Amino acid sequence: MSVLTRKEIEERLKKPLGCPKSIVLTPLLDDNFDEDAVDLRLGCYFRSPAVSSIACIRPYQDTKDCYPELIHKPYRKTKRNSGQESNNGIYILQPHHAVLASTLEYIKMPGDASGQILTKSSWARIFISIASAPWIHPYYRGCLTLEVTNL
Questions:
Q1: What's the rounded Cα separation, in Å, for the pair 35 and 126?
Q2: Which domains does the chain have, with CATH numbers?
Q3: Which of 5, 41, 95, 110 has a Cα-to-Cα distance from 47 of 20 to 30 A?
């Protein structure tokens, strides 16, 4: 399997939805493309581990305390009545913490292609890591879930 070029990705994006070789990435901006990749953006929903006094989390235990809290951060800052901006659109990831985040883009992969998730080097240089299942399987549909860690 070879890497698709920018031209091949753009051609597949123009194919009809029902075409077996079509790729869907929506919403997509023109400047999201590299020569052999598409940059995806973080969505506005995050799952943050709840801070609690639980000594450990036991998977499959019948308790609601084990599930991460869902946080919504809108994209645009909202203005308060005083005219000052609030930080409603900002998510602060504290050092040595991680959060689950989804991509803004919805993805439809064709059956003859797969994708790979990589941390951008600009993020890596400030010690932000994207740790997730790094493979986007053929026929995948949906928004990707990423584990974003502030190292």
A1: 24
A2: 6-50+68-73+88-150 (2.70.40.10)
A3: 110
**Residue with token string 């005219």:** 83
Terminal Cα-to-Cα distance of the chain (whole angstroms): 33
Selected residue with higher pLDDT from 72 and 106: 106
Which class for 96: exposed (0-12), middle (13-18), buried (19 or more C-beta within 10 A)?
exposed
Q: What's the CA gap between 135 and 40, in Å, rounded?
A: 14
Q: Which two tokens stand for residue 88?
A: 């409603």
Of 15, 86, 71, 9, whose CA–CA distance to 40 is shortest?
A: 9
Mean pLDDT of the chain: 82
Task: Summarize pLDDT for 27-79 with one digit per residue, the tens.
Answer: 988 888 889 899 999 888 888 876 655 566 566 665 555 556 677 777 655 55
